[in-house]
Specification:
The protein has about 425 residues and is α/β, with parallel strands linked by helices. It is built from 16 helices and 15 strands. The strands form four sheets. It has an eight-stranded parallel sheet. Strands 6-8-7 form a three-stranded antiparallel sheet, with no helix packed on it. It has a two-stranded antiparallel ribbon with strand order 3-4.
């Protein structure tokens, strides 16, 4: 600075009085320039998206076996993880529990269903999860298995055939629940034997594999019109002096009673995991609270307040930007992000639903502008494979967005809000 000032203004550094006068004039001029600059509104959209990042930012993607074969071949999985790392992603959520089967060899599943791994040729003679953990860690990625189906199962699965009494129902006795065009049913999350099965599956993964965490979503709840099976009705009667559950499945007390029972299981599951591996991250990826609670009896806000959630990734799959932003501003979201990493799940597309890169980047910007911990995308294939836009265009979009690598925001490793 001394050299610059001396050259620009011709300072005589041996004249203290002259020095002070010129320096004062220079400071005044600089202050005026800064004031004028600050008077103009800052246009955040003119700042390259990839430059407005934090030292820590979650950059995740869900790897599923629905409309995707990324998990069904060792080299394909390996190449996918390498590419994600090259684009500065830092965490993957591979599904390990889907359609009533595990996608890794499971003795727990075999004891109940008779089948140890999902009957897909690409998973035979392999341990997909072992490969994902090994290669993921080699690439510097966190690997957090996702128990995608929770208490849900296909109506014709071996699990349902072997344990039909585990299935819950509506008040009229019907059990089928459609997701799209597929008929599914739900295991009763209130039965101790069902809880033990699900808990044993998760603990098996934590004990057997060097995973960084486990993730559940609101499939660890229950559609609110279900819960009228004989076991659940009997349990309710026992705790209500013989009174039957309300006919209206939206009755506030009936909703809360079932939601609290699910919360009790989440607490039980939390401590079971921590007893095996205390630094295993408990990640939850639900819908917004009002939807999760009302439609799936999953009171994640309460779970988070109780300290049962260490990483929250809220699925906000909305096209309308006003609706998207409204969900970011909810009180329970703000409360959670004040003390745990809260990231936003963004829809990058579905097999029959195209989401343009422009929308994806706009939603990332909204999350970043509000200092969320990061973003995760559903799902891998629609990042750049299953999309109407050219692959190079999609890849360039993510390269521009994630210019530099960042650390995964880990609550257990000193993360601060």
């Amino acid at each position: 600075m001394k050299f610059v000032l001396n050259w620009r203004f011709g300072f005589d550094w041996l004249n203290p009085l002259r020095n002070k006068r010129l320096l004062f004039a220079w400071i005044c001029t600089l202050s005026m320039v800064i004031a004028v600059m600050l008077s103009f509104p800052i246009q955040a959209q003119n700042v390259p998206l990839g430059l407005r990042t934090q030292p820590e930012e979650l950059r995740g993607v869900w790897l599923t076996n629905v409309d995707s074969d990324v998990l069904f071949q060792r080299e394909r999985l390996k190449n996918a993880l390498k590419q994600l790392k090259s684009l500065n992603f830092n965490v993957v959520y591979p599904t390990v529990w889907n359609e009533g089967y595990t996608l890794y060899p499971s003795q727990v599943a075999k004891r109940v269903t008779g089948i140890s791994v999902y009957p897909e040729p690409g998973l035979k003679q392999r341990d997909m999860l072992k490969e994902a953990v090994k290669e993921g860690h080699k690439q510097g990625l966190k690997v957090i298995p996702w128990f995608e189906f929770g208490f849900m199962a296909p109506v014709n699965s071996q699990l349902v055939k072997k344990r039909p009494y585990w299935i819950t129902s509506r008040r009229n006795g019907s059990r089928s629940w459609k997701e799209g065009v597929i008929d599914r049913v739900w295991l009763s999350p209130f039965r101790p034997d069902v809880q033990k099965f699900i808990q044993n599956l998760i603990v098996e993964v934590v004990r057997k594999y060097d995973v960084d965490g486990i993730q559940v979503d609101d499939h660890f709840g229950l559609p609110s019109d279900l819960g009228y099976d004989p076991y659940t009705v009997g349990l309710y009667r026992k705790e209500h002096g013989g009174k039957a559950p309300p006919k209206n499945f939206k009755d506030p007390e009936w909703v809360q009673w079932r939601a609290n029972k699910i919360t009790d299981f989440m607490k039980q599951l939390f401590f079971a995991i921590k007893a095996v591996k205390k630094d295993c991250i408990i990640s939850v990826a639900p819908n917004p609270q009002h939807f999760s609670y009302e439609f799936f009896l999953a009171d994640w806000h309460k779970w988070e307040r109780m300290g049962l959630v260490e990483d929250l990734v809220i699925q906000i799959y909305r096209n309308d930007m006003n609706v998207f932003v409204k969900e970011l501003e909810q009180p329970e979201v703000k409360a959670a992000k004040s003390h745990i990493p809260v990231s936003i799940g963004i829809l990058s597309g579905l097999k029959r639903k195209f989401v343009p890169m422009e929308q994806i980047q706009a939603q990332i910007k909204q999350a970043r502008d509000r200092n969320f911990a990061g973003v995760s995308f559903f799902f891998y294939e629609t990042l750049w494979n299953l999309t109407k836009e050219a692959k190079n265009q999609r890849l360039s979009g993510f390269q521009e967005t994630f210019l530099q690598p960042t650390r995964y925001p880990n609550l257990l490793a000193g993360w601060k809000p």
